[in-house]
Amino acid sequence: DGGITQSPKYLFRKEGQNVTLSCEQNLNHDAMYWYRQDPGQGLRLIYYSQIVNDFQKGDIAEGYSVSREKKESFPLTVTSAQKNPTAFYLCASTPGRLFAEAFFGQGTRLTVV
Amino acid sequence: SQQGEEDPQALSIQEGENATMNCSYKTSINNLQWYRQNSGRGLVHLILIRSNEREKHSGRLRVTLDTSKKSSSLLITASRAADTASYFCATDAMRSPPVNTGNQFYFGTGTSLTVIP
């Protein structure tokens, strides 16, 4: 089955640690996105990538980093510089053309302990 | 910055009633989409309406778009308890010339719908 997979589903981080969230898709989509969702809030864009080896900052990129070495993979690293990382993180992909729907993973809930 | 704002923030109705939620956005768009999110899960695409369309139907869903008012509405008819979820609108920002390799999606703050059996 084609889809987009995020792992892990739950992640706990100690203060000062970097953690990496995985996002893999087998939909052959060009564009991939990372969003952050806080309780009762909408989605805010962290980073997006329209093509391999290229990515752009979204609205809240500070304290996060990404890479796009393969078309299928778009991992997100939450660094120690992110002061309030506890949130629900969602990865999405689109075919990379106009009028295309986004496919979402099931999310990773990150908690700082 | 979030482009869209949904209204109301929360809506509670009885099963069988219709549910209407609205979305307003700020800039010109190529298309507007509606998504559904069950608690603690990812978003699922419901329907896409292009900027040159005014109304679109999909099953029990009806979406309207008024580009002059920069607003859209989602109507769910004959609601069911299984429709309980949060609903988000998402827009892309129109660019000139049109971008052909993906767009940023801007999501609204969502409407939380509860359908009481």
Identify the notable features of this structure and list them briefly.
heterodimer, A: 113 residues, mainly beta, seven-stranded mixed beta sheet, four-stranded antiparallel beta sheet, 50% strand, globular, B: 117 residues, six-stranded mixed beta sheet
Write a structural description.
The complex is a heterodimer of chains A (113) and B (117). Chain A is mainly β and 113 residues long. Chain A has no helices and 11 strands. In chain A, the strands form 2 sheets. In chain A, strands 2, 4, 5, 6, 9, 10 and 11 form a 7-stranded mixed beta sheet that branches. In chain A, β9 and β10 form a beta hairpin. The mean pLDDT of chain A is 92. The N and C termini of chain B lie far apart (37 Å). Chain B is globular, with a radius of gyration of 14 Å. In chain B, the strands form 2 sheets. In chain B, strands 2, 4, 5, 9, 10 and 11 form a 6-stranded mixed beta sheet that branches. In chain B, strands 1-3-8-7-6 form a 5-stranded antiparallel beta sheet, with no helix packed on it. Chain B is an all-beta fold and 117 residues long. Chains A and B meet through β4, β5, β9 and β10 of A and β4, β5, β9 and β10 of B.
List the helices and strands and how they pair.
The complex is a heterodimer of chains A (113) and B (117).
Chain A: E1 4-7, E2 10-13, E3 19-25, E4 31-37, E5 43-51, E6 54-57, E7 64-66, E8 76-78, E9 87-94, E10 103-104, E11 108-112
Parallel strand pairs in A: 2-11
Antiparallel strand pairs in A: 1-3, 3-8, 4-5, 4-9, 5-6, 7-8, 9-10, 9-11
Chain B: E1 5-7, E2 10-14, E3 19-24, E4 29-37, E5 43-50, E6 55-58, E7 61-66, E8 71-76, E9 85-93, E10 105-107, E11 111-116
Parallel strand pairs in B: 2-11
Antiparallel strand pairs in B: 1-3, 3-8, 4-5, 4-9, 6-7, 7-8, 9-10, 9-11
